[in-house]
Structure formats: C-alpha cells, structure tokens
Amino acid sequence: MASKGYGCCVVRAVPSYWPTGPRSVFFDDDEGVASVPTLRRAVAEGRIRRLAPRLYTADLISDPAQIVAENRWHILGRMLPGAVIVDRSAAEGGKVVDGLLYVATEGRRTTLKLPGLEVRIRPSNMDQEVAGDLPWPSGLRMSRPARILVDNLTPSRSRGGRAARTLSLAELEDWLADKAVVWDEARTARLREEAVEMALAIGDPERAAEISSLFERMAGSEPLRSDSGVFLQAVVAGKSWDEQRVEMFKRLAGGLAEHADPDVPTFLPATPESRELPFFESYFSNYIEGTVFTVDEARHIIDTQQPPASRPADGHDILGTYRCVADPVGRKAVSEEPQSLVGYLRDRHQMILEGRPEMEPGRWKQKPNQVGTYLFVDHKLVEGTLHQGFELAQSVSAGFRRAMFVMAMVTEVHPFADGNGRVARVMMNAELSAVDAARIVIPSVYRSEYIASLRSMSASEGHDVSALMRVMGFAWRWTAAMPWEDRAATEGQLEATNALRDPDDAAIGGFKLILP
User: Which domain holds residue 99?
Assistant: First the structure.
C-alpha cells in the first residue's frame, strides 16, 4: 500500500475498491473492483448498495431509481449486450414510459427488474435485415424507422393501467404523420418502401398491405378511419403542429399558473382613457423593433395620418400599430375559440403592416425564420401550432398570466415574415383590456430586459418563467402608474423614469427604468 511521510507522521492512502462518484455504478466483474466476497461484506456493513444481481453503487444518498435512470444505457449494455430497443420504446425514442422499456435480443422472453425500471425482453423477430438498426450508447441498438413501423403494427394489450407494449393504431398514425412533417417526400417514400419490404421479408403480406394503407390515408388517397390519430387528421387537413413547441407551451401554462412573485400584482386596473397611452404604446412597440423616430416625428405622423415621404413604410408601421391599439373595441377583442383568436391575430397583423405589402400582412410566413441560430416554428406548422397554443391559453387564468402566455406563445411561433413582436404585444394587451386591467408598454430603455426574459423562457423550454414574470410585472406596474391622461405629466414622467433612453446608451450610462 502506498504511503507518504510528512515529518514524523505517515499518511497512508485509503484503498479504493470501487467507484465512489455520485450516482456512479459498477459491476462485480469490473476491472479493479474488489472480489465478490468483499462486495457482499461491504453491502452488509452498509458501505455500498446492491441495486441488482452483480450491480452495485457506493452512493448511499441518491434514490436508487435516479441512479439507474442516469446509468440506464451503461447498465443495459452490460446486462443485455447488443439488445435492440423496440416497440413502443423505439417509437418514443428510447423514453421510459410508465417505468417500462422494451428490448429484443437473442434468447427467451423474460423481464429484468431494476429500481424504477422494468425491462421487458422478447426474442427478436428479425434476422439479418436489422443490420440497418441504429447505433445506440453502450453497444445497444435502436430500431430503425421501418422496423418501428412494422413492429408496432403487432396488436398488444395494456395491463395494470400501463401503456401497451406497442402503439395503438391511432398512436402509430400520429407517429408516422410526425415523421412525414419533419422529413422530405423522398425520405418518407423510402420509409414506406423499406417497411413494406421488411413486412414481406418476415412473411406477413397483410402487414405490408396495412403499411401501404397507412401511407395512403396520410396522403389523402384513402379516407381516414373514424378514430384516426388527432395529429394525422391535422396533417391531412393542413393544420399540423410543432409537438415540441406544444409541450413547451404546456410547461409554460403550468409555470405561469404556479409561479408566485410578491412583486407582481394580481390585478392593476385600466388607466383612464387617453390619447397618450395608445400613442406611446405604438411609439415604443415600433422603437424596440428598430423603427426609430423622435417623439415629435411620431406625433406628426399620427396627427396628420401621413407617413413621411422619406420613410413611408416606417411611418405606416407607426400608423398601423396606433390604429390597432387606439380602437377601444378592437383592442380588447378576445375569444375562447382558438380559431377566432387566430383570426384576430391575422387581422391585427394586417392592420399593423398594411404599409409593407412586400411582407404580406396577415399571411403566414412562407419560409422558416430565426434569430441568430434559434429557429422558430416551421412555416408549415404555424396555424396548427397557434391553434394548439390558443387552446392551451384558456387553461391559464384570465388577465396578466394569460396575457403573458399569449405574448410568449405568439413570439415563440413567430408566425409572420415581419412584425411578430408588435403583434404579440397587441395580443397580450388585448387579454389585459378584456378584463379591464392596465395594458403594458415596453419603453425603449427596457428593451434588453424584455428580450432577455423571452430568451430565458425559450432557453428553458418553458420550465422557467421567473424572468418573464418579473420583467413584465415591473413593466405592468410602470405602465399602470403613468399619468397617461395628462400629456405634459406623461412627457415629464417619461424623462424622469428614463423611459425614453436608447437601450444601448442607457446600458453604457447605467440608467434603468424606474417607477414613477
């Protein structure tokens, strides 16, 4: 045993018989690990834990199920070398559903039980054609798409309230429709050919015919079944959606419902009717999107209802936004019907960008859009994703929280070629005005905080709404406290609260938005 001398003392290195890192695991035949009798003695003494036959951990604190979850593929790669992830588990991309994972390997049908995970093993029904299966961590394999399609056409039953081994036909239809939306036509056609060939190779012409019928229904060449998958129905109707974004919106809705912040009021009453509020709502909403005028220039545009000859499109942006938010009836129009809300969104966008016909006001974007490397919802999935989002909005309490949901959701979809931020804020304020609450103005000095709060929500995929609530809650309080009914007082407070400062200049000078 190694030792080191320090003066008169001798410090002996403590021997390591197994890995000791948090949530690490080891097998009894790993190189350098103590003998089996030593491991048994260590288990009896409470120094390590046995998770399953031959499998141990030195982590005595973490939940065993969590330890297994973090080491799932390493464990299965050792216990079931070369196994193929199949059936529902393959269709779900290797996700564990109801604590179950399905694999196929050589040998008999059996079950491997681990903490928090039950692995159901069946003999493979494929031969050499599975050479196309995909590599997976730790020497495992993942079923290729054609095999997923063929395998999941085998009926199975749910037991004990847990998901069945294979997808239901409706689930499989939706799985296929999702692939078709993401893939191009050539790849989708190749999947059909490979799946039909595979079904015929295993001697199942009926399954091959069912595969062809699936593709025909998706193409609209055959009628849909009465209980066809919801997503397939949407695809055939031209209203498919971005499933990942819809899941994000579900988390966003839940987070907004649960988040508590003492600095965010439950309700702030609408300010008295005035011309100043819609003017500055339009002015700032355009300023933070890069349409910059002085206050006097913008007032002249509104007063004369004429854009400047030198900048006609920018002037029309100011006019269009002002008309949208100054209409006392139209600015508060909302609905519980998703399709009506989609209509309001298009109408408001058309009004805001009516001076930019090249941007096709009111028409969905015709190609993908992005900010930096961040991609928004694909242009083919816009209307369906909005429909799902507006439906989820009804689960969020009316007022500030629903307004936040709608604004963030529309921003995340980015449904138009231009003007997305402006129309998202108009939709947000419609939700506030509908319950007679104060609207929200984002002044120029507050642009960076506003953008950062949206990026925080997007980066967390809807898990973290704290920045959004904090930033928008402060903007709400600022707007509600402003003396919009008095022009001179408004302009004075805009100066006093730093609202008119350019965001970049303010950052250099250390200026922040403050409450009136």
Answer: 71-159
245-270 pLDDT per residue, tens:
999 999 999 999 999 988 999 999 99
Expressed in angstroms, the distance from the first to the final Cα of the chain is: 72
What is the amino acid identity at position 388? Q
Is 515 inside any structural domain?
A: no
Domain count, the chain: 4
Buried b (16+ CB within 10 A) or exposed e, 123-143: ebebeebbeebeebeeebbbb
Q: What are the beta bridge partners of residue 11?
A: 4
Any domain includes 99: yes
Collapse the DSSP code of 138 into the 3-class scheme (helix H, G, I; strand E, B; otherwise coil) and give the result.
helix
299 and 404 belong to one structural domain: yes
The answer to whether residues 213 and 254 belong to one domain is no
d(CA 219, CA 222): 8
Domain boundary among 106, 139, 159: 159
User: Which domain-ending residue is among 240, 265, 289?
Assistant: 240
pLDDT at 124: 82
- Cα 75 to its chain centre, rounded Å, is 30
Taking the CA atoms of 372, 374, 377 and 379 in sequence, report the sign of the dihedral they define: positive
Structure tokens at 249: 């919106």
**Of 43, 114, 47, the residue nearest 78 (C-alpha):** 114
Which DSSP state fits 253? H
Q: Which residues contact 393 (CB under 8 A, 6 or more apart)?
A: 253, 341, 402, 405, 406, 409
CA 69/CA 28 separation, integer angstroms:
20
Those residues with Cβ within 8 angstroms of residue 430's Cβ, 6 or more apart along the chain or in another chain:
331, 332, 333, 334, 344
State the pairing for strand pair 117-123/100-105.
parallel
Q: Which residues pair with 111 in a beta bridge?
A: 120
> What is the C-alpha to C-alpha distance for residues 306 and 319, in angstroms, rounded to an integer?
8
- Residue whose token pair is 């303010």: 506
pLDDT of residue 166 exceeding 90: yes
Query: What pLDDT, in 10s, does the model give residues 82-108?
Result: 999 999 999 999 999 999 999 999 888
Q: What is the pLDDT of residue 238?
A: 84
User: Does one domain contain both 217 and 87?
Assistant: no
Bigger pLDDT: 168 vs 160: 168
pLDDT at residue number 5: 40
312 and 429 fall within a common domain = yes
Predicted confidence (pLDDT) per residue in 445-490, tens digit: 999 999 999 999 999 999 999 999 999 999 999 999 999 999 999 9
Amino acid identity at 141: R
- Tell me if 514 is assigned to some domain: no
Is 66 domain-assigned? Answer: no
pTM for the model: 0.76
Residues 39 and 126 grouped into a single domain? no
